[in-house]
Amino acid sequence: MEGILNAQKSDLERVIGVNLVGGFLGAKHAARVMVPRGPGCKLFTASACTSIAGMSTHSYASSKHAVVGLAKNLAAELGLLGINVCPRSNLSCNQLSTNIGQELADFTPKVEAILNEVGNLKGTVLKASDVARAAHFLASDEATYVSGLNLGVDGRYSVVNPSIVVAVRSSLLHA
Questions:
Q1: Annotated active-site residue in 44, 60, 107, 157
Q2: Mean pLDDT for each consecutive 10-residue tract of the chain (175 residues)?
Q3: Is 60 among the catalytic positions?
Q4: Domain ranges of the chain
């Protein structure tokens, strides 16, 4: 993972352009369709890096924090029109290895084992279907009074293991 000393402004602008500006424009155009139709839900994809420091590049973390802020602000505005807006963050072994750095991509099975060992939900590793069910819930009628919540679908690693990245890196470096 690239540190601040070697960070490039162009990388920040590119990541902000995709994650934040893309989300902003998507929300704007979705709202144009959703507002006249009435109640609905707009979901944003955030990241576990909004809860756990050190998981990603500074550009990516900054952009995802901005996405959460945008979603919360839109929740205040669009909630008055019956539209729920929620950011959703998740942590999986594939995302973790990707966010730490591409050099760890081959270590996914080891990262999964570490997450299982130090995780709060023993014997459980996040799957794509878990993330899909959370998104489905937020978009469903069962969540009509849920808005502005950054739902962390991360097995609560962000609460019980704030130094998970350090543990994974240390384990992989000493393997």
A1: 60
A2: 88 96 97 94 88 85 95 95 84 43 56 67 74 88 87 75 63 66
A3: yes
A4: 4-173
